[in-house]
Amino acid sequence: MFHTHVKFPRNWIVNPNMGMICPDNYVEPHIVESLFESVRQYQAMLVKDYEAFVQVASQTGEDSSWDSSDVAELIIKESKGHDAASLSQSEKALLAVRLSRKYKVPADQISFSLGVPLHVVLQILGSKEYRMMT
């Protein structure tokens, strides 16, 4: 599977779907836990690429929930350095679709982070016009 000549200990756990060795096999979990506030923060540091984070979470069946600071970072990343307050309504609409589709951010978090009423975000996410533009 790993195309290596090195023999791994028999007790190491491998996730065959992701083709990776479980990190618990080669790091001390209590040390890692003391460095990060949560498992999600540790995973985000491992995979700072948010798209990869979403993909890994979906492949492992984990929740890819976002807190408000994560979504704020995504907004800045996706809007090339601008925060939500500096975006126009049409930019926010396009960004809402991108956040939902690309990162699986729930509508209520999009609404809160962009400062757009939830019913408007839900209309945008259901609109064919915006879905085709992103």
Record the SSE blueprint.
Blueprint: E1 14-15, E2 20-21, H1 29-35, H2 39-46, H3 50-60, H4 68-78, H5 89-103, H6 107-114, H7 118-126, H8 128-133
Helix pairs in contact: 4-6, 5-6, 6-7
Structure description:
This protein is mainly α. It folds into two domains: about 15-60, no CATH class; about 70-134, Arc Repressor Mutant, subunit A, CATH 1.10.10. Helix content is about 55%, strand content about 5%. The protein is built from eight helices and two strands. A hairpin with a 4-residue loop joins β1 (about 15) and β2. α4 (about 70-80) packs across α6 (about 105-115). It is elongated and about 55 Å long.
Strand arrangement within the widest β-sheet reads 1-2
Instruction: Catalogue the unreliable spans.
Output: none
Could you tell me the strand content as a percent range? under 5%
What is the C-level CATH assignment of the largest domain? Mainly Alpha
Give me the count of strands. Answer: 2
Q: Give the overall pLDDT as a whole number.
A: 80
- The CATH topology of the largest domain is Arc Repressor Mutant, subunit A
Tell me the number of helical segments per DSSP (H or I, 4 or more residues long).
8
Q: Name the structural class.
A: mainly alpha
Largest sheet entry: 2 strands, antiparallel
Shape, principal axes of CA atoms: elongated
What's the end-to-end separation, in Å?
Answer: 37 Å
Order of helices and strands: EEHHHHHHHH
Number of discrete domains: 2
Q: Whole-number radius of gyration?
A: 19 Å
State the helicity in percent bands. Answer: 55-70%
* CATH-scheme architecture of the largest domain: Orthogonal Bundle
